[in-house]
Amino acid sequence: MSSEKTVDMLEKPSLRDSLMFLIPSLIGIFLFMTPVSYGGDVTIPIAILAKGSLAQLDSLAVPLVTFLVVASAVLTLATKLFKPKAVLSSPFLHGLLNPSTLWSVTRVLGAVFILMAFFQVGPGLVHSEDTGGLVLNDLLPTLLCVFFFAGLLLPLLINFGLLELIGCLMTKLMRPLFNLPGRSAVTSFASWLGDGSVGVLMTSKQYEQGIFTEREAAVIGTTFTAVSITFSLVVISTVGLEAYFLPFYGTVCLAGLVAAVIVPRLPPLSRKRDVFIDGTPREKDDELVPAGESSLSFGYKQAIGRAKQVKSLGSVAREGVHNAADMILGVLPVVMAVGTVALVIAETTPLFNWLGAPFVPLLELLQIPEAVQASTTVMVGFADMFLPAIMAASIESDLTRFVIAALSVSQLIFLSETGSLMLGSKVPVKLWELFVIFVLRTLVVLPVIALMAHLIF
């Protein structure tokens, strides 16, 4: 697996080897991990590229994403029905256009929903501004641009040795606390500063490359693909408490840390296998620093060994194109299908109210004012993270609105985006597992958030 990158400890890297590691990695750090101020917000350059391209597309963004989702469904159906040799003989095209029956049906459903939303035909509950229209107009164009640039440029982060260096530096923290490789810190940092979808993409690609095991990919995808600082500010502003942003984000970070320690040690995450995508078990920690070596020197040697494996920049560019195509044609239809269904259920049925009812005693025990009204927002976040903040606007108590906002951000998994992304990616999680993890995270972080809210208000 990735342990093949180990180099001779006595070998001194050449200038070319060092530059092959340093230049792409520094560009990757700048694009994915460097906080910059843009439009009054703190974000990362890759997100700025996505926003800039979305602004350039303007009115073409929605028709373009509609075409791509429909094209994905049509090409998938054609592959299933006619089995063209050109597709089946290509590993990339075979993986892209010949998914399982379940995902093929999901792509077709996504295409049907997106056509209904685009042309405003069929049942209004599917294409309204609060359901399919929301996914099509507000979410998919942004994801299209994020997937394009993040997929294209992601090899700069993962192919040239940066993960190996960070892994060796961070393993002493990540292994004892979270039982994860040190390199998983890169994914968390990129999500925190940029977008959770970037974190899911990074996790999925590293799992496919044999860098993370099933358990590690599932834990990272459901635990460390945090909501960005920018979106957290939007949430706290929606509930009218933007003046409390610093204590709010501090509460979110504390709750997320507690959940990251506890939830992966519970089923279903604890039952995930520590095997790579090809079934090979993880036999040793390739980030373990040998005796007599410093973390920095060993990590640098590992990084140089990884950079040496790059055959040509052309192969890296092709991998970037494959990443982008895989996410755009493979995941966007899933987001449209699953996100629309989840929002229809949230908007037209009392299901999430029923699911939230058992939380009333817990909210009352935690002395949260307006507990009954607050309970209706607890589970609706599984459909979309922004819904609880919208529903909380009518609640009078500042403390309760604070708790709801912090909870919605800390729950992490929501089907209108990150949940659908994980289901559509190679990360080995099922829908019911996502729901159980969502509930566990809710139960773990709610007392932490309530305690902090009582200290603040």
TrEMBL record:
The chain crosses the membrane at residues 21-40, 60-79, 100-119, 139-166, 217-237, 243-263, 327-346, 366-387, 399-415, 435-456. Residues 142-241 form the Nucleoside transporter/FeoB GTPase Gate domain. It comes from the Bacteria. InterPro entries: Gate_dom. It holds the Pfam family Gate. The keyword Transferase does not apply. Keywords: Membrane, Transmembrane, Transmembrane helix. The keyword Coiled coil does not apply. This is Nucleoside recognition GATE domain-containing membrane protein YjiH. The lineage of its organism: Bacteria, Pseudomonadati, Pseudomonadota, Gammaproteobacteria, Alteromonadales.
